[in-house]
Amino acid sequence: MVGVRLTEFYEVVRDEFGQMHGDALLRDHVLLSLGGRTAAEAIEAGREPREVWRALCDEFDVPPVRR
Fold first, then answer.
1. What does pTM read for this prediction?
2. Quick check: 49 and 5 in contact, CB under 8 A?
3. Which of 16, 21, 34, 36 is the most buried (most CB within 10 A)?
4. What is the 3-class SS of 9-53, one letter each residue?
5. What is the pLDDT of residues 26-65, one digit of tens each?
6. HSE of 11, CA atoms in CB hemisphere, 13 A
């Protein structure tokens, strides 16, 4: 996900986790690797979507082939 746009980030999250579950993860799941922020909070704070995607993949053991 090099140079990923925010819309692409949301698409891959929803593709991997499903529409409703993906949206809830972004909003509700706290990621310690992102300073105790949710993915949505990290994005709002200026973190790169690629970095947030990697944190989600690590947290939820997304296989490398789907990262």
1. 0.87
2. yes
3. 34
4. HHHHHHHHHCHHHHHHHHHHCEEHHHCCEEHHHHHHCCCCHHHHH
5. 999 999 999 999 999 999 999 999 999 999 999 999 999 9
6. 6
Torsion angles phi and psi, residue 6, rounded to 5: -60, -40
φ/ψ of 45, rounded to 5, equals -80, 0
**Strand, helix or coil for residue 6:** helix
What is the rounded CA–CA span in Å between residue 45 and residue 64?
27
Is residue 35 within 8 Å of residue 41, measured between CB atoms?
A: no
Contacts of 10 (CB under 8 A, 6+ apart): 22, 26
Kindly tell me the burial class for residue 29, based on how many C-beta atoms sit within 10 Å of its own C-beta (0-12, 13-18, 19 or more): middle
pLDDT of residue 29: 97
